[in-house]
Design a protein that fits this description.
Two copies of one chain form a homodimer. Helix content of chain A is about 40%, strand content about 20%. The first copy, chain A, contains 18 helices and 19 strands. The interface between A and B is large, with 88 and 88 residues. Chains A, B: Belongs to the FAD-binding oxidoreductase/transferase type 4 family.
Chain lengths: ~475, ~475
Amino acid sequence: MAYDAALDALKSLLGDRLSLTQADRDLHGQNETWFAPAPPDAVAYPATTEEVSQIMKICTAHKMPVVAWGTGTSLEGHALAIHGGLCLDMSRMDKLVELYQDDMQVRVQPGMTREVLNTELRATGLFFPVDPGANASLGGMASTRASGTTTVGYGTMKDNVMGLEVVLADGTIIRTGSRARKSSAGYDLTALMLGSEGTLGIITELTLKLHGQPEAVSSAVCAFDTLHAAVETVQMVIQMGIRMARIEFVDAMTAQIFNKMNGTDLPEKPHLMIEFHGSEAMVAEQSERFGEVVTEMGGANFDWATTAEDRTRLWRMRHGAYPACIAYRPGCMGLVTDIVVPISRLAEAVEDTRRDIDAAGLVGPILGHVGDGNFHSVLMLDRNDKDEFKRAKEVAAKMSERALSMGGTVTGEHGIGMGKLAYMEAEHGAAWQVMGAIKQALDPLNILNPGKMVPDQTKAVREAAE
Amino acid sequence: MAYDAALDALKSLLGDRLSLTQADRDLHGQNETWFAPAPPDAVAYPATTEEVSQIMKICTAHKMPVVAWGTGTSLEGHALAIHGGLCLDMSRMDKLVELYQDDMQVRVQPGMTREVLNTELRATGLFFPVDPGANASLGGMASTRASGTTTVGYGTMKDNVMGLEVVLADGTIIRTGSRARKSSAGYDLTALMLGSEGTLGIITELTLKLHGQPEAVSSAVCAFDTLHAAVETVQMVIQMGIRMARIEFVDAMTAQIFNKMNGTDLPEKPHLMIEFHGSEAMVAEQSERFGEVVTEMGGANFDWATTAEDRTRLWRMRHGAYPACIAYRPGCMGLVTDIVVPISRLAEAVEDTRRDIDAAGLVGPILGHVGDGNFHSVLMLDRNDKDEFKRAKEVAAKMSERALSMGGTVTGEHGIGMGKLAYMEAEHGAAWQVMGAIKQALDPLNILNPGKMVPDQTKAVREAAE
């Protein structure tokens, strides 16, 4: 094997925590969607930052690729070891390091998941709001600049990560950001690392912003006769400055899937799902104003989830949309799209996408975080039908091109990974080369998640493998 | 002169819009605080992005330094041409390029000031919230990641710039970001450029997030017996989740200066100045809850500015604090500090700073954006008293060291410029070298604002000048 010497050194460092078994390699070569498996040569389970630093020194010395692994819930094949090398499974670095109750901040290790963090915070009156649906690791969420249903109220990872500890390709340990709520002290390396998908460094610690549990919460679902009316409603309430914690759109097909898979009896029409957080009075006022807009736009079947159980059920259903879709067409494979357009173009973009999916004869509900202008389609594909896959890729390509032509982006939250690399040049033009220059400066041997994110620099990796 | 050939080429390109006069050079070699003047060799007034690109190509060919200039209101000497070269005065690129009313976004040129933008937006019901006090250019505000009194409610430039057009050192024009409200598409070059102080590129256009004019606004001033009570109040209201648009602290000396310079009759005690934005009901509720905390903390002389005129007067007074201080001690020179600490350490940090200033026998009011944990002292110095200057620098140094020891930052909004360069290593450690590597990758000849921000790379500049 090409990396024998590296693996010997890693074995000395990690002992049992370096795994070469086929089962472990296969497990870390999988992904949740349609990309071909790509197992690493070995899987390491580091326990400390210092160990990650030692690992990176060994991998630099032997030019061995390193791909970090959180929970493997990425939808774009980010963590596939397409050039082999070492998978760095961060699951043992999953501790809460320090809670700063008075500052509403917390330091955590990257392998902790968002649900575990919120469970640990339960007694404090604080919570971490970013929720991409999956119970992802916080390191993974930082690496993909994740967001989710609460972005309209609380922001994305970009808005909620104050600082990072990162191990660079050569093993250097750096700290970015601070616990100050703002800073003008130099280049924003925290922001640069967020969304860099493991290509610039390995995140070994995060300082996160927490939020107070709202005094009052109110959620609702309402149905609309047309997709257009539902999406226009979103546009109106945003312009009116109504403060929402969540506003989600699901189309008629999603409602149908929810009914079948969850036993609900939603009208099989487009819906909005909304939530307000604040004081009792504020939530009451915002809910009322929202209700007025919905009525004006012909919305109906307004159903307020008043108890905590009802709310949990509502959002569990929303978060379970992807597995529900996959289960709805047994044995299918999902191709999940993810674009953002300016709010003014949202209705048009969703309608055009609906038409494209139907014209292609595909099964694909549309749903999304419409308060951000972000929506997805879950294209459910027969694994053996190559033509269906081809048509799905064409629909996805059209969506990405439409997003760009409307001034938007090809990915709002899923990231680039394998699936969106082909659009980087179209989205960024000459700026993509700047990303390449930064990658080259920070990882000259191209050992950090090679083959992803930046213009092709896989030469070093290929050489190393020879 | 070292740059004769470059200046000839620039003259051909720009004609009258290249100025070599001593008056113009002196004007662009000044700063608002204590740094020694450093005039450039020439001043260019570009009119288009294409022209900026041509200028950069010429300056790259001749290894001539380039320093961008907005309105010259920086407090840390950012735009001083310490290695000579060309000053790029952006004042002719001051247009509103396109308004996206429905998306609450606007594209502007960098020479437009924030006040002009808000005047142009007046009829739209929208406004741009970031207000560093001075009527700075939007390009300058982006370059220093500026903030100000409204950060607690609306965020800093980081939160309100969606995308940029930037001309790189070699003349390449790139676009960063998009009009999408969020994106996971690659490295966040917008965030990297924000706060890079002209060392990575020249900003030639900005896409900004706008906000709806609030339905209701309510401002108030209240006095406290002790600095500690005022600052503790801030900590409490933040933890209670009271939504403020502004919360400012001024100490007893500032109140005294306001009274003398503005004819007010504030009690000469520490004060908080606060503003709420929202619906009528929301503002009323938040104001009431705030009032309860103030009473509990022994605050008094609660004075609500109910009319728009009263509010304008209040915030004009706050924004005029720096010139008021300078005028209070005629002929003095200001040394303005700028640190941020975690909110839990704020009271302690402000009190320790007060003690340091008094112990050093200096005149220096303390005031700041305490909702962000950010505060300043305006140390008013006799230009001819070298010992006073030395003591002021010592106080400033202690503040920076204290900020770092408390997990904060040496600058919340003024930036690095000349004044904070000496603290970059202490704040960032090994991450400072990463900033240097990025600078090297994007500006290998070190012609963009050389001598600032990153570890010393002035060699190329010195060679060019030989």
